[in-house]
Design brief:
Layout (H helix, E strand, L loop, with lengths): L1 H20 L25 H7 L4 H9 L4 E4 L3 E4 L2 E3 L2 E6 L3 E2 L3 E4 H23 L3 E6 L22 E9 L4 E3 H4 L5 H16 L2 E3 L11 E4 L5 E2 L1
Parallel strand pairs: 5-7, 10-12
Antiparallel strand pairs: 1-4, 2-3, 4-6, 7-8, 8-9, 8-11, 10-11
Length: 229
């Protein structure tokens, strides 16, 4: 009985994507694993897979960004520092909100941010404060370095990570990760919702409870390892 059940599961896992790809089944694009990601659609079980597909397909990834609120400039592949090549990257300039400065990001990181902004960040701000986030304060994305205390390259070394230290609301109110995270009020609850939403959008998210080095920011990346701390 166990083998029969296993075979049925395998047939579903293998057969359904093949059927969709061959157009034997008609499914909405948001559920079609072969259709490009649309960041305007609410995330579902296909979203992580569609984000992974963007890593090696710059043309598809930029198509995804073109349908998102992000304003960006495509960048040529380059090696700005030894041992830190940049591939499939863009310069993120603005979105439905502004940034304290533009930043370089891998295209999948930019696509994940577009999902995060629309489906997690702004809903959290409206719920907590009745207004949107107008500006994100970050402290950079690209830094050619290793992970502290490790020989492994940081995701920042390929511009595959973004560190966010604060948010400014439409009325000018500033919410600092360092100051507000330890509290119990609206700002702290907002930051916890933002952290939770980031974990649903990016592959790895590290916040103030991870270690002292992250006490003042959210680290968000699209690396190979999934972590939410």
């Amino acid at each position: 009985m166990g083998r029969v059940l296993l075979m049925l599961v395998l047939l579903v896992l293998i057969g359904v994507p093949v059927a969709v790809h061959q157009q034997w089944l008609d499914v909405p694009p948001r559920w079609d694993p072969w259709a490009p990601l649309d960041t305007r659609d609410p995330p579902n079980l296909m979203t992580s897979y569609k984000l992974r597909r963007l890593q090696d397909d710059p043309a598809m990834c930029r198509q995804v960004l073109d349908m998102s609120p992000l304003r960006y400039a495509a960048l040529d592949d380059s090696t700005p520092a030894a041992n830190c090549p940049l591939r499939n990257t863009v310069r993120v300039q603005a979105s439905g909100l502004k940034f304290n400065s533009s930043f370089i990001a891998t295209c999948p990181l930019a696509a994940a941010f577009a999902l995060f902004e629309q489906h997690h960040l702004q809903p959290a701000a409206h719920e907590a404060f009745g207004q949107p986030v107008a500006l994100i304060e970050h402290v950079g994305s690209f830094a050619c370095r290793r992970i502290a205390g490790s020989q492994r390259q940081s995701e920042h070394a390929s511009a595959n990570a973004l560190d966010i230290v604060g948010f400014r609301l439409a009325d000018g109110r500033r919410i600092s990760v360092l100051r507000a995270w330890p509290g119990n009020g609206d700002e702290a609850r907002f930051l916890r919702r933002v952290h939770e939403g980031a974990c649903a959008s990016f592959n790895s998210v590290l916040g103030p409870e991870y270690n002292a080095a992250h006490r003042d920011h959210f680290h968000m990346d699209m690396g190979r390892f999934r972590m939410c701390r």
